[in-house]
Amino acid sequence: MVKYVVRGGRTLHGEINIGGAKNAAVAIIPATILTKSVCRIENIPKVSDVTTILEILEELGAKVRLIDDTTIEIDTTNFRNAPAPYELVRRIRASYYLIGAMLGRFGRAQVAMPGGCNFGSVRPIDQHKKGFEGLGATVEVIEGGYIQATADKLVGATIYMDVVSVGATINVMLAAVLSEGVTVIENAAKEPHIVDLANFLNSMGAEVKGAGTDVIKIHGKSEIHGGTYAIIPDQIEAGTYMTAVAAAGGEVTLTNVIPKHLECITAKLIEMGVDVEELDDSVIVRSSGVLKRTNLKTLPYPGFPTDMQPQMASCLAIARGTSVITEGIWDNRFRYVDELKRMGARITVDGKLAVVEGVTAITGAPVMACDLRAGAALVVAALAATGVSEIEGVHYIERGYEDIVQKLTGIGADIHRIEVAEAEPAILVAL
Ligand code: EPU
Questions:
Q1: Which atom of ligand 1 is nearest to the CA of 94?
Q2: Residue 127, ligand 1, Cβ within 6 A
Q3: How far apart are CA 309 and CA 312, in angstroms?
Q4: Tens digit of pLDDT for each residue in 329-366?
Q5: Angle at the Cα of 140 (from 137 to 141), degrees rounded to 5?
């Protein structure tokens, strides 16, 4: 078992280089299936979700070549139309992008029901299904828990999304690129990685217009080609380090960011008394560690991102006064709160609402990450706490944060990644 041991209370100073966006990479990598040639992708984040999606592609016949630390080449010439194996698919939610991409290329996809962080009673895919069916596919769950999508021919159509969904918008974009005619996605998601995927597809000869607005129009092409593309910087990785500096105090420059993508986070941190200076492709965050209360509500982009909600809760836990957090995307994204409470935070959760009563200090404790951003929130809290925290469940954190321990160490944090022997189950110990 691996855990992070964090001795809190150190202010943070220096520079962190932000990696490529995980949620863009896990969409762009499956999108390479749509061409029968080679794509070179730069600014690939070194996180386990990306490794998993690459393993799935390799398992199905793609050739993946590492060019340097953050650049890969994917050759999908011999990609096979075979079922995507459960053992790999279950590890990440984004494996459902294989359905859109394989349906687009072969008119047929069989993908095991995906896994990933669980913050709802279920994470529905009805809007993905609605989109595929709108393009003329038949979608069903078949034996072995596989989702099967088949179509003799995909034909462009107008698809109205009943909820704003990042995943469904991306999946319909993927399926529509090689379809006949024009597809219009109404009430589309507008997140930066939707725009990044559209830019990638267009660089390969697709015709996707309107990404970043509510309406995306895709003119189907008979084929698209390979090329070279650089993934955008990770908005959430940058936002997470911004909250770390806000909570622990100090001055840190985050390089390789798009400040515009961070505006929703920057605005909230400024309300809390943090100084954020935007430069061309970097931001400087300065904080005394003394924070003011605020309220926040998570919403689809350009609203405040749900993937930053737990990290902000760690900041609000030590802010002066009482703050209210409203989760507007997921049903069950406050599971980390019990762990923050073990560190002395005063938070009451009622459904999709959390009331955070700021305390003057939180203290280190043994805590357990229950998902990716929950884990990030515990790291932020541990950096600001007095004393030592031991964070378990770090495999969740490493799904989405590259070199987090090295990056934090580089700005003066006292954080170590240690391997410990798994404890014997109590029953065996008793025997
Ligand atoms: N929804 C439906 N039906 C659908 C799809 C979604 O009702 O068919 C609902 C969901 O239940 C949820 C809302 O729509 O209430 C938004 O879900 P969305 O489809 O936008 O989420 P996602 O595509 O599954 C992506 C990110 C998540 C991030 C959400 C929201 C990836 C790989 N994942 O998930 O990121 O929380 O968008 O912004 O892009 C993370 O990185 O930690 C993470 C979980």
A1: 32
A2: yes
A3: 5
A4: 999 999 999 999 999 999 999 999 999 999 999 999 99
A5: 150
- For the question of residue 315 being annotated catalytic, the response is no
At residue 110, the pLDDT reads 93
DSSP category for residue 194: H
Estimate to the nearest angstrom the gap between the alpha carbon of 53 and the chain centroid.
Answer: 13
Nearest CA to ligand 1 atom 35: 307
Residue 347 near residue 327 (C-beta atoms within 8 A): no
Return the SS3 of 236: helix
Distances in Å between the Cα of 421 and the Cα atoms of 1, 4, 390, 416, 418 are 6, 14, 14, 16, 10
Overall average pLDDT of the 10-34 stretch: 98
186-202 pLDDT, tens per residue? 999 999 999 999 999 99
Instruction: Give the dihedral sign, CA 375/377/383/385.
Output: negative
Rounded CA-CA distance 419/431 in Å is 26
DSSP labels for 266-329?
HHHHHHTT-EEEE-SSEEEEEE-S-EE---EEB-STTSB-GGGHHHHHHHHTTEESEEEEE--S
What digits encode the pLDDT tens for the residues 83-111?
A: 887 888 888 888 999 999 999 999 999 99
Which distant-in-sequence residues (6+ apart) come within 8 Å of 101 by Cβ?
30, 31, 33, 34, 109, 174, 175
Number of neighbouring beta carbons within 10 Å of residue 53? 24
Q: Which two tokens stand for residue 13?
A: 């100073």
Please count the other Cβ atoms lying within 10 Å of the Cβ belonging to residue 122. Answer: 7
Query: How many angstroms does the Cα of residue 162 sit away from the middle of ligand 1?
Result: 13
